[in-house]
Amino acid sequence: MNLLASFVFLRPAWLLALLPAVLLAILLWRRARAGHAWKRWVDPELLDALLVGGETGRRFGPRPLLLAGWVLAILALAGPSWRNQPSPFAEDEAVLMIALKVAPSMGARDVPPSRQERAAQKIADLLDERAGARHGLVAYSGSAHLVMPPTRDRAVMLELLPDLQPGLMPRTGDEAGQALTLARRQLERADAAGAILFVADGFRDSDIAALGEHRRAGGLPVHVLAVGADPAAAAAAEAGGGTVFELTADSADVEAVARRVQQTARRPSQGEGEKREDGGYWLLIPLALISLHSFRRGWVVSTY
Asked: If DSSP codes are grouped into helix, strand and coil, which group holds residue 117?
């Protein structure tokens, strides 16, 4: 049922060429009827030689096969399609905007060597896990700042990460809402499937409210990689329509983030720009088999 609902012709104007095929079918049917009338008076063994084209003894004569080939060729040219064409850039990962908290609280050493350094290490691991994909970076504390727009240049981001320390930020604080707005704008400019990942050790009630408004407005999923024990991290991820991830000693957390980002990423204008796959090429196979009969002795002549 779904197949029929999605079936279309990419070049439907070619179907008009089926009209001559219908006329040919009627002509062949009338000629066959005339041949059947002679059966009442002529020996069947002689009738095939007497009739022009001599098809009374053939189950599949050249003219019906010519008609079948005609129909198949027209259908192929009309471009039957029943599914979307796979994107040639299917290997391209979703764009991920990372919002990294750079505040004094991130200097705590309950997560060795420190929350800030561990967060930078996990981001570097994530870049490796999603090699070839585009990543952007926003740093925030009392204000939010774009560090890097979406790029595939992993090396540049790795050079910048160690310099993101609380003393670098102009103001101290926890403006996750500003970081969310900045990250969202970058994804809109990229015009690609994407998601937002917060790497932070805490969220205020106002931040969670901002994430909820973002999601209700149709915003992209917001995930959270929680650095340190923060009960508000789960509420923030839920409000943003994403998932919360706890730090692990191995790469399990990074791998889970990469999988989830790809699963939940979507385009703001979903469905636009999709291309249909042309299924007419499959009809060339039976068409080629039919054309093989043209090499049989007398078949080309008998079609006239």
From this structure: helix
Same domain, 114 and 210: yes
Q: Based on the domain organization, do 231 and 112 belong to the same domain?
A: yes
Based on the domain organization, do 48 and 113 belong to the same domain? no
Residue 191 lies in a domain: yes
- Counting as low any pLDDT under 50, the low residues of the chain are 1, 52-59, 88-92, 267-273, 301-304
Token duo for residue 132: 């070839």
Tell me the C-alpha distance between 60 and 65, whole Å: 7
- Each residue of 118-167: pLDDT tens digit? 999 999 999 999 998 999 999 999 999 999 999 999 999 999 999 999 88
Same domain, 298 and 256: no
The count of domains in the chain is 2
List Cβ neighbours of 295 (8 Å cut-off, separation of 6 or more).
none
Q: Are residues 200 and 252 in the same domain?
A: yes
**Residues 6 or more apart in contact with residue 223 via CB below 8 angstroms:** 195, 196, 197, 198, 237, 240, 242, 243, 244, 245, 257, 260, 261, 264
- Summarised one tens digit per residue, pLDDT across range 258-296 is 999 888 665 444 444 457 788 888 888 888 887 776 666
What CATH number corresponds to the domain at position 115? 3.40.50.410
What one-character-per-residue DSSP string does 55-111 give? -TT-SS-HHHHHHHHHHHHHHHHH-EE-SBPPPTTTTPPPEEEEEEE-SGGGG-SSS
Contacts by 57-65 with C-beta closer than 8 Å and gap 24+? 61/302, 62/293, 62/299, 62/300, 62/302, 62/303, 63/28, 63/302, 63/303, 64/28, 65/290, 65/293
Which residues constitute the domain of residue 296?
A: 2-82+279-302
| Claim to verify: residue 45 and residue 186 sit in the same structural domain | no
